[in-house]
Amino acid sequence: MNENEKYLTLLTIGWFITTILLYTNAINIQPGKYVTSKLKTTQNNMKRKVLKSFHSQYSIISWFVLSLITIAAIIIILPWTINKSYTYDKIVESIYPEIYGLLFDVILFGIIISIYQIATDRKKAIEDERDQIDDFRGWKSDEASHRILGSVKRLQRLKVFSVDLSSCWFKEITLQDLCFADSNMTGLFLFETKIYNTTFHNIKSNIIHCRDSRISGCSFQKGKIQFNLHTSDISSTLFHDIDISSASFFTNELSFVLFDKVNFSYSFFKFKKCSYVEFVDCNFDECIVNEYFFSELSNPTNFILGYQKIMIEYDLIQEVNSRSENNLPIWILRNKNTGKLTRPVHKIGPESIIAMNDPWMRVGRCKPNFDINQMNGEH
Hints:
By secondary structure, the chain is of the alpha/beta class. The chain has helices at 3-26, 31-53, 59-81, 88-94, 96-136, 142-157, 293-298, 307-313, 359-362; strands at residues 169-171, 174-176, 179-181, 189-191, 194-196, 199-211, 214-216, 219-243, 248-263, 268-280, 287-289, 314-320, 329-335.
């Protein structure tokens, strides 16, 4: 191809591109403006992200990486920018040792300072969230409920599962996908609150008030909780190896609930509806129930498991409530081995064998993804 043919080819290509741009502009496609706007948007997004990385919580890491890139660029570009009177051997002998020393210092102190800043920033963030919970503790307002819940969620993201919620107030909010371990919840108020897929592990607290609320997909494991539970619904929930003695456990509906090694002694345990509930090795000594407790448990339409053992070990005794002004009768579950009892109600045959072994399958929910014993967060 000679010189004239090259110019003709370039002219043809230019004419073709111009024609396409004019045509697309005539039908209002405007690819030039579209490409320009996309480039500007991308540029602004990149600029915003870069600036944010240098002003974020871990900004020192960005500065550390920038320092490494700068020193690496100097090492690469230096041989081509220095005076030609310096040979490569002289550069290696005189300048490179200093540059490599600087690089080593940046890496060493950069890592140390980065680790220190991350640790101190995390500690400060945890202290700030706990201080905010303290500021709103005892407030009976919607704002306090949402502020405390926000702090709890931020603490969970920081892997902090031990939270002091004593004397806190939650009303008309949702607690979902949370985990509380070794937390203090004495005097916690839960009114019209929805609690979903939340784990309570080793909670040792006095009275926790829960009224007109819904608990679903949760687990209560170990610890001691003195519930003051009224007109609430509990479904798909596991109670395992937990002491809820001397509590008020009044529910509207119990469904798909497993009580495994639960201590109900000296508690009020009443419900309006009960279905698909299982009791395994539970203690009901001196537990106050309603008059039809045994008949409701044994009703085949309710699909209750483990009630046979309760009927074998306990008698349903009617006594006078000495604390009531009208001396109203109450019904108490009393262990048959404690002595001679009056008016025994039921004596039932041996307990049937329970086929399902996995407690999480029996409550109709999936086991949580995290293991309480393997949590590395601060408690």
